[in-house]
Amino acid sequence: MDTQDGRHIDPADQWVLDPETGTYRLRLDPEGPPAATVPPQGGRRARREAQRSAPDPDPAPSAGGRRRAGARPSRKAGRSTRRKVLMWTAGTLGFMVLAGSAGAYLLYRHFDSNITTVDVGTAANKHAPTSHDAVNILVIGTDSRVGLAGKYGDADNVGHADTTLLVHVAKDRSNATVMSIPRDMIVGIPDCPTKQKDGSTKTIPGTAKASFSPRFNESLGQQGRDPGCTMRTVTEITGLPIDHFMMVDFEAVKTLSTAVGGVPICLTHAIDDTDSKGQGSHLHLDAGPHKVEGEQALQFVRTRHSLKSGSDLDRIKLQQQFLGSMIRQMKSSDTLTDAGKLFKLANAATKALTVDTGIGGVSKLTGMARDLSRVDPKHITFTTLPVKDNPAEIKYHATVVVDETRAPQVFAAIKNDVSLTGAPKKKPAAADAKLRGAKADPSQVRVAVYNGGGPQGAARTTAEWLGSTKGVGHSTNGGNAPDGKQHDRTTLVYGPDQAGQARALAAMMGLPASALRPGTDEAGPGADMTLTLGADYRGAGIPLADPDKPPADIQTAQADKKECVG
């Protein structure tokens, strides 16, 4: 709370009309004459009335066509202002926070004290908030009940990673992917150095993956694990480095959904989310469109018992719809042009937010938001980390495991900035021509297999698989790659006279066109092609993802599409 002349002044009373721009701003100098004592309410009409009654220090038009002070902004300028306010946002919970934190000219030093920061050490990349690189932000919705007086269960529950989304923004800002990570996924959790209150570092031992534990959500809270532990776990699963994290709790959903005037959602089936034991979100909604806010919004994103399978995977679809709708609400409603509503949203967002020290401050958050706002909503895609039922569970499937066939394809697409919306491929169309044409008979294929980054023993097992299973005439184990380097991608090098063999081998192994590297010199009779297995190689018979093509059969949703779920 600010003070002025010994009195407590609410920040909302610091709004003034800027006669130079015709817009409202927060007054930084308490000695300056206020043009308005409260944030303007009522949308465009109220602002027009305020502008008419505001003093006009320079009624005459200025030279050079400059708009006179106090004049109504042009329609084009209005669109530009809304564009600045509509900062790119991320996550079922975190997207709301980032959107609320992105009204750049409405947020300043006053809100810094609202934000909580955590030093996660080396778990976060040391990128500046704005960067010329791709950006990975981990958005965590924690189920902490601390301070909620037992309202949603155990009041002493410090919280786990209940809702987690990996937000990847392409280097050229052409697209973004938001990947939900199922909380009940069985994973290994690595050792985690955590910063203590006294400044020391304590390493929390990791937990090896077993048949039924640990679950992904235990990467936060359990044994004192902080968000850095969740970041390390995600990197271990996906191979993707995490730059920053943003974390919010139950109350944030209620506060932020109310601040924007409610979030439109749509259901294909009625929801009655109370099970036979009286558990559940206790949400009761008919099929069709609704607008949820406050307690009802929280119930919506927590609902799962009344969904098709009653699982977290179905709940994720509800959360993705909520997220996409929030983005549309921020873009289309008068939230963007109502300074009072923006103030409430910004205040609620910053109070709800815990971030890493790299983005700990309003100026850093708004700088990052401006940078990321260049992503077109139609190229923001939501998906879920591909999983399958835990094979260790015979009767009731309460947990899942990573789908080792499909998940690497999604990870590769994210790593290579591939848009899951099906945007035009980066590679030239001619690249696919390498896979077109006649294929040699498998018995005529000759290849030497090297391991440049695949699983241990992959060169040997692949060479044996090609010979015994696929009928390849000559496949040899070359051992480790001769150059001794780590190869990110699998490659097949061949001469012009081996093109038919290369096409045959690519079809057997599921190699994309980008893996084929034709040489310029003839190989000659009896020469072997060179197959080097990279870090993208998962095993014999598992197709490689095309790094320039979206993976097929992956569940997706787009931020600009209205859909009913349930």
Determine the mean pLDDT.
77
Proportion in helices:
10-25%
Shape designation: elongated
Distance between the termini: 43 Å
Question: DSSP helix count?
Answer: 12
Question: Could you explain the architecture of this structure?
Answer:
- There is one protein chain.
- With 566 residues, the protein is of the alpha/beta class.
- The protein contains twelve helices and 25 strands.
- It has helices at 44-53, 75-85, 94-100, 227-238, 250-259, 295-302, 312-332, 339-352, 362-372, 407-415, 458-468, 499-509, and strands at residues 2-4, 7-9, 15-18, 23-26, 116-118, 135-142, 161-169, 176-181, 192-195, 201-204, 244-248, 263-267, 271-272, 284-285, 288-292, 354-356, 380-384, 387-389, 400-402, 446-451, 474-480, 491-494, 516-518, 529-533, 556-558.
- Helix 3 packs across helix 8 (339-352) and helix 5 packs across helix 6 (295-302).
- It is elongated.
- The two termini are 43 Å apart.
